[in-house]
């Protein structure tokens, strides 16, 4: 089998083109894709952490409301539950997402009301 010059030049041309593409293009393209993938992984992790924090906040909110309603019910057993709900404008958390400022404000208001009830008791 004879190797002619054209085949040899095509082989050298292919190797040279492969080296140029790998050196100048492929390395930068792979770095770009790896950087974007790492950024997406970090955002996914942060999203999961925020969802867990939101769930804990909703659980805290629900617990505070339950405790508050129990304390009110213990102090005023004759109070109609529907009247209590309407007068205090409290409801179980729905699908609405609460901001940290909302939950802080609600928590502070509930604490103030509970402390006020405790002082009336004394």
Describe the structure.
This protein has helices at residues 5-75, 81-88, 100-121. The chain has 3 helices and no strands. The longest helix has 71 residues, at 5-75. It is rod-shaped. It starts with a helix and ends with a helix. Helix 1 (5-75) packs parallel to helix 3 (100-121). It has a domain at 57-122. The mean pLDDT is 80. It has 122 residues and is an all-alpha fold.
Topology:
Elements (H helix, E strand, L loop, with lengths): L4 H71 L5 H8 L11 H22 L1
- The number of helical elements comes to 3
Helicity range: over 70%
Give the amount of beta strand, in percent: under 5%
Shape assignment: rod-shaped
Q: Could you write a compact summary of the structure shown?
A:
The chain is mainly α and 122 residues long.
Task: Label this structure with key terms.
122 residues, mainly alpha, 3 helices
